[in-house]
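Class prep. Protein, please:
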Amino acid sequence: MKISARNQLKGTVSNIQEGAVNGVVTIDVHDTKIKADITMEAIRDLGLEVGKEASAIVKASSVMFATDIIPNISARNQVKGKVVDIEKGAVNGHVAIELPCGCKMKGSITNEAIEQLGLAKGNDAVAIVKATEVMVGVE
């Protein structure tokens, strides 16, 4: 199945924190940990368990960028990387950073934000994603 979400990071489930309605699934993508807040029903339906292969899936429009880790923020996913591509449009642009795992995280932000953050190829950047914006997929 092909999907339109630009970010599909394959890894292994390393932890599941169960709740009454939702659970938080941690997927290790090499040395990068991505947390997804999904329903317990989805966890059961997908057969998720520690050690199972799974993908963290994130739409580019759900990715925010910063120039460094932001302390005291509720977003569970903050991953550092290097900017490897910027493609500007009329108003918005697409930014891609390469994570330590060698995979890329792409985001769609305004050209104004690209300029204000000083994002440029080779610069450090942090991709920020709320756990509720991460979907989980299995083969």
